[in-house]
TrEMBL record:
Record protein name field: PspA-associated domain-containing protein
Species of provenance: Candidatus Nitrosocosmicus franklandianus
Pfam name, any one: PspAA
InterPro entries, A to Z: PspA-assoc_dom
Domain PspA-associated: residue ranges: 12-106
């Protein structure tokens, strides 16, 4: 039987970057980065070092999704299980999103 059929996928939307189907292993990988981002932002510092590290981590999430995900055509309308903010997010807005479990539930 086809391995692609047996695997479970989640739909993720990258704001400004489209939608992708990703498998649960990839969800777990980006959830780990998400948890690191929550820890990074808990200190409430607003300096360039924090912003740079945050930007590197969100870029890492984008790269993983683009590398391992299956792009969904724009003409297909699909509800998203996970929404990733755009690269232009500031630290104030990021702190609103990346708290608690972050943007990805730890259930995945």
């Amino acid at each position: 039987m086809n391995n692609e059929i047996e695997r479970e996928f989640k739909t993720v939307r990258i704001l400004g970057g489209g939608q992708f189907k990703i498998d649960l292993d990839t969800v777990k990988e980006i959830n780990q980065i998400d948890n690191e981002m929550v820890s990074l932002l808990q200190n409430n510092e607003n300096n360039e070092t924090v912003k740079k590290e945050f930007d590197e981590k969100i870029r890492k999430i984008y790269d993983k999704i683009n590398e391992k995900g299956i792009k969904i055509e724009f003409k297909e309308i699909t509800a998203s299980d996970i929404i990733i903010p755009g690269l232009d997010i500031d630290l104030k807005k990021a702190r609103e999103l990346f708290k608690g479990e972050g943007i990805i539930d730890d259930l995945y």
